[in-house]
Structure formats: C-alpha cells, structure tokens
Amino acid sequence: MFSKLFRVCRDDSHSSSSEKLKQTLKILEEKEVILQKKISQEVDRAKGFTRANNKQAAIECLKRKKYYEGKMDQLGTFQLHIRNQEKKLQQDCHPR
C-alpha cells in the first residue's frame, strides 16, 4: 500500500526502462544524421540539375528534400517525447 502511495520504484525495472529509452534515443539521433546527409545530397543534386537546365528533375529533388525535412521534424518530436519520458521516469523513482 505504501509503495503505491510513495511510488517506490524497483531499480531493475528503472534501469531497463532507462536503457531502452537511451537506445531508442541513440537510434533516432543516427536516423537524424542520415536524413541530414540525404537533404544535403538532394540540394546538391537540385543545383546540378538547375545548372543543366533540367527544371523538372530539380523540382523533384526539392520535393524529396522537403519530405526528408518533414521526417526530421517527426524525429525531433519523437526525441522530445523520449526525453520527457526519461525525466518522468527519474522523477517517479526519486521524488522530491
């Protein structure tokens, strides 16, 4: 009864949850780096197509760039949620 009242946490569950959140955050950061590379590649390709007077191909590159930017925004949101979960987990196990 008191454990529910005072939120006593178990160290094993806390550490495993914390580890999973850290691993997920690391994976999301790696995906973000990959997307940044793809965005820069699409910009370079669009510039090349513009120089070659291939306007349609340049537009397609910019569309893909915009798509990748949207995915990066989603990853940023996911990272924010994971960081909030980590903070909440720490607060639950170490009440003030």
From TrEMBL:
**Any single GO BP term:** late endosome to vacuole transport via multivesicular body sorting pathway
Under the heading InterPro entries, the entry gives: Snf7_fam
Q: In the UniProt record, which is one GO cellular component term?
A: ESCRT III complex
Q: Which PANTHER family match?
A: CHARGED MULTIVESICULAR BODY PROTEIN, OS07G0490700 PROTEIN
> How is this protein named in the record?
Uncharacterized protein
